[in-house]
Amino acid sequence: MRIEQDLKLGFKDVLFRPKRSTLKSRSQVELTRDFTFKHSGRQWSGVPIIAANMDSVGSFDMAAALAKHHVMTAIHKHYSVDDWAGFVHNHSAEVLKHVMVSTGTSEADFQKTKDIMALSDDLLFICIDIANGYSEHLVEYVEKVRTAFPDKVISAGNVVTGDMVEELILAGADIVKVGIGPGSVCTTRVKTGVGYPQLSAIIECADAAHGLGGQIIGDGGCTCAGDVSKAFGGGADFVMLGGMLAGHEESNGEIVEKDGKTYMKFYGMSSQSAMDKHSGGVANYRAAEGKTVLLPYRGPVENTIQDIMGGVRSTCTYVGAAKLKELTKRTTFIRVQEQENNVYGRE
Ligand code: 5GP
């Protein structure tokens, strides 16, 4: 047994130190980033925020709404190829450019990904997603997908340490998805005791990825726009959001009326709810590692995404970053033991 003594940090453990700046207004801040991806060589430009591939977040409707802001959506993997055909048929190249096709690592997943990607050349991103990215099987699967799709942008995860980021990039991933346990409806840390505070995971994994010319997605744990900024400040190239985008009209979750109020169901993709819906229940060898919650219904996602983007722009003005790309270079985090003043609760 070994213990690593240096304390790892979450978003709640830091704040940005403000810095002198010549920026007069947040409207001067550019959130669009341009990337050229390592293996595929493909170029992409957009706002590097991604709606999570959860079935009450990453819907086709969410993709259409967020693409207007050049924001991405990782479409959840429970749509059929026919559903995809309808979506591809009705949507512009601009929307498809802001979409990731999610997949697991089974043979059936591989075939389905091939069928979906064959629907349109405008589909650019493949998101290979398993809960435990430390499985050797993931590395082999990434190699297989890279061989089949040499010119597509491949993301793989989830992992939380630099060694595995490097292994996945060397196997063919352009982007590595980072996060084990920070999610709003995740119970992995409680059920297994495994995890890594998300800000430190981002800082360490970004360093490993950037050293090899790869990128990372900070996935999970953001509870407010300030956390999204902290993820970018820590070095995340993309930030993935589940809970912050759940509960909206476009999230396509189940609406529940209770005591005269309207709620939307939101659940982890390894929760009992998800497994009942998609896999005929929780297999007897495993435990559910996600929870189910009812969120007050929030209406269209438009205001929320503007609020998040406005918050990140504002962070950039506080530290003097004219572009999102500069935010991490302009970031000094101070370690703190307080965040907001909660005397009247959160908005
Ligand atoms: P959030 O933004 O809600 O904090 O986190 C979203 C992320 O939580 C997702 O992108 C995914 O990585 C993770 N996640 C989603 N469902 C589950 C689950 O059932 N169990 C665990 N461990 N993580 C989940």
UniProtKB/TrEMBL annotation:
Top EC class of this enzyme: oxidoreductase
Keywords: Metal-binding, NADP, Oxidoreductase, Potassium
Annotated protein name in UniProt: GMP reductase
GO aspect biological process, one term: purine nucleotide metabolic process
Keyword Metal-binding: yes
Oligomeric form and interacting partners: Homotetramer.
GO MF annotations in UniProt: GMP reductase activity; metal ion binding
Active site residues according to the UniProt entry: 186
Cellular component terms per the entry's GO annotation: cytosol; GMP reductase complex
Gene3D superfamilies: Aldolase class I
Enzyme Commission no: 1.7.1.7
Organism field: Photobacterium galatheae
Catalytic activity reported: IMP + NH4(+) + NADP(+) = GMP + NADPH + 2 H(+)
Function: Catalyzes the irreversible NADPH-dependent deamination of GMP to IMP. It functions in the conversion of nucleobase, nucleoside and nucleotide derivatives of G to A nucleotides, and in maintaining the intracellular balance of A and G nucleotides.
